[in-house]
Design a protein that fits this description.
By secondary structure, this protein is mainly β. It contains four helices and nine strands; from the N terminus they run αββββββαβββαα. The longest helix has 11 residues. It is globular, with a radius of gyration of 20 Å.
């Protein structure tokens, strides 16, 4: 017969170790499709209590050969991650916004230091975007920091000529709406 103490010890050994509660919280990411002056995708990563944000004109690509320009823009409040709707004319970013993808991200190295160094590597667990990615700051001239959003080679990578995720899945992951439909519903 197994004693209660040894049974408890056996269960503890079988359970995976628990992360420090201070670091266990998942970091959110969101990609918002934004029809402002020009259609683009706003790529946002939760870091240090805010959403670090980049405007990606062509949207993300699952092809590691594609290096997508990502222009850094102002940080956004965390509660903006779920915003979907219309930004009024005359306001910054006026136009339609849908939540194109969302989920959690896992940094592959110390995120604050990697961000400061200009080379942030991470894993995404979203509804459309998954796997390993990198944001790399460039030395291109301009008034705003320019980065490249790059899909790393892994099982979720796909050649652009085989599959274009932004064309194949244009809808919101929250409402199912497409750009143009949000305006019609209001």
């Amino acid at each position: 017969m197994v004693s209660a103490k040894s049974e408890h010890a056996r269960k503890q050994d079988a359970e995976p170790p628990r992360a420090d509660p201070g670091t266990a919280a998942a970091l959110r990411f969101v990609v918002q499709k934004h029809d402002a002056r020009h259609l683009h995708y706003d790529f946002r990563l939760e870091l240090n209590g805010t959403l670090k944000s980049w405007a990606v004109p062509k949207g993300p690509s699952l092809d590691p050969r594609d290096k997508r320009l990502a222009v850094q823009v102002a940080d956004h409040a965390l509660d903006y991650a779920n915003f979907e709707g219309r930004i009024a004319e005359g306001s910054y970013g006026a136009g339609e916004v849908i939540v194109w993808d969302h989920g959690v991200w896992h940094p592959l190295e110390a995120p604050a230091a990697a961000y400061a160094a200009g080379r942030l590597r991470f894993r995404l667990v979203g509804e459309k975007l998954t796997g390993a990615w990198a944001l790399v700051r460039t030395r291109l001239p301009g008034s705003k920091a320019q980065w490249l959003l790059i899909k790393e080679r892994d099982d979720s990578a796909r050649a652009a000529e085989e599959y274009n995720v932004t064309e194949a899945q244009p809808q919101s992951v929250i409402s199912g709406a497409l750009i143009g439909q949000a305006r019609a519903k209001q």
